[in-house]
Amino acid sequence: MVIDWFTVVAQIVNFLILLALLKRFLFGPIQDIMTKREEQVASRLNEARKKLAEAEAKKKNYQHKLDELERSKKEMLQDAKEQAAQTQKQLEHEAREEIEKMQHNWKEALASEKEAFFKELHRQATFNIINILKKLVQELSNSTLEKETVNVFIEKLQSLGKEEQQKITTAVSGGEAQTVSVISSFELNNEMQQQITGSIKRLFLDDFKCIFEVSSSIGFGIELSTDGWKIGWDANIYLEDLKRNIEQLFTSDVETIQQQTTQNE
Amino acid sequence: MELNIDDIIFWQYEFFKVNATLINSWIVMLLLISVSWLITRKLTAGIDIKRGQAFIESFVVYVVDQIREETHEEPDKYLPFIGALFLFIAFSNIIGIIPGFNAPTASLSTATALAICVFIAVPIFGISNRGFSTYIKHYIQPSPLMLPFNIIGELSRTLALAIRLFGNIMSGSLIVAIILSLSPLFFPAIMQAFGLLIGIIQAYVFAILALVYIASATRVREVKQNNEVK
Questions:
Q1: Domains in chain B: how many in total?
Q2: Is residue A77 situated within a structural domain?
Q3: B34, B36, B56: best to mutate for the A interface, most A CBs within 10 A
């Protein structure tokens, strides 16, 4: 077994050529491409990490916004509820006030109508009753109601106690003008005026001035008025009872109707 | 059956000659370069790679890992040399299975040439790594008396490298030839398969030993530096 030195040298050259060619065509490109891939993978990983971080940040941001939104939603809902409750309360209050006002107005109108009705009733009733009385007195006693009224008034003056007569006398004489007003609901003729004047003079004092007036404020009667004193007779005191009875009857009827209305509601 | 394929001469002019060893080596080289060119002309850095590229990349990664393990250095500098050694020897041995084709590595001249390449590469890598004087100094360490032993050691391991490769491959071919003349076809086929395995193993052994020699030449500095640090 001999070593052929030419072959050895040729093989060394061959190997060196192979080494150069393999470096050029195999290891060089392969190493380059592997390095490139590693770089790509690294850059992709970096990119992925960056994107992940971005996504995390975005997620946090959106979560924060969502929380904010949820919180503001709750707040708005709460506000809306409170506002609705307040509005409801206010509307109820307004409605109640409106109803109360309407009730008040209605009651006032009712009261006013009632008053007007009773006033008219009183006037009509007084007028009719007095007319009837006038006819009755005329037919039964051959006298007039006015005349009888003057008689009753004089009797009332006469029936006053000594003490009261004294007080009236003092009031009339103590006054500056020393006048006595006789107010009647009808016109007094001269005979009646003299009769009244005479009675006053007999009962109280001689020196005074008597003024006769006609007033519709008195229902039917005569009234003596001096400084601080008033005395007389009025048929209204009988009519007042009648008026009270009618009013009572009317009021009880109205209450019954109101109770029924409330029950129905 | 020729024992020495260097003796199969196709053309000769005085000292220059073209024998079977050279022809077969050129065929192996042509094959290697062609396959490399075919695979690497359409390389892609993307994820979707072809089988050939994946195979070559796996091979390169394996060699790179081996080099890194042995030298503890960046493998780029050693990869072409170690890779070329392994590929040339492995391809030569594998191709030797073809009847009538003699593996170039079955020639003592080829094995010697490769061993000489390693013998020259070791000081080149050592000097490039450690500097000329530092590298030369390691022959006279720990004592100048060791110089002849170190030189003998270098020469003998080169000789061993050459003889090991040549002996294994040549004996494999020879055994197949002898058995073929004695027994039926099946047994030589099995021996050929063994020969294939031995061929790959020898390529691996040659490349690894070369790497170990280079590593031992470059690592001395690291050990020394580490000691200085301590």
A1: 1
A2: no
A3: B36
In a domain, A120, yes or no: no
User: Count of domains in chain A?
Assistant: 1
Number of Cβ within 10 Å of residue B65's Cβ equals: 11
Task: Determine the average pLDDT of the residues in A223-251.
Answer: 79
Residue whose C-alpha is closest to residue B25's, from A21, A2, A12 = A12
Q: B14 lies in which domain range?
A: 5-229
Share of chain A above pLDDT 70, in %: 97
Q: Which two tokens stand for residue B197?
A: 């395995």
Tell me what ipTM this predicted complex has. 0.89
Structure tokens at A48: 């992925």
DSSP-derived secondary structure letter, B24: H
Is A191 domain-assigned?
Answer: yes
Q: Chain B: which residues have CB within 8 Å of chain A?
A: 3-4, 6, 15-17, 19, 21-22, 25-26, 29, 32-33, 36-37, 39-40, 43-46, 53, 56-57, 60-61, 76, 79-81, 83-84, 87-88, 104, 107-110, 112-114, 116-117
Considering the domain boundaries, does residue A66 fall inside one? no
Interval A20-44: pLDDT, tens: 999 999 999 988 988 888 898 899 9
For A149, the domain range is 143-234
State yes or no: cis peptide before B80, omega within 30 of 0.
Answer: no
- CB contacts of B32 in chain A (<8 Å) are 18, 22, 26
B48: three-class secondary structure by DSSP? coil
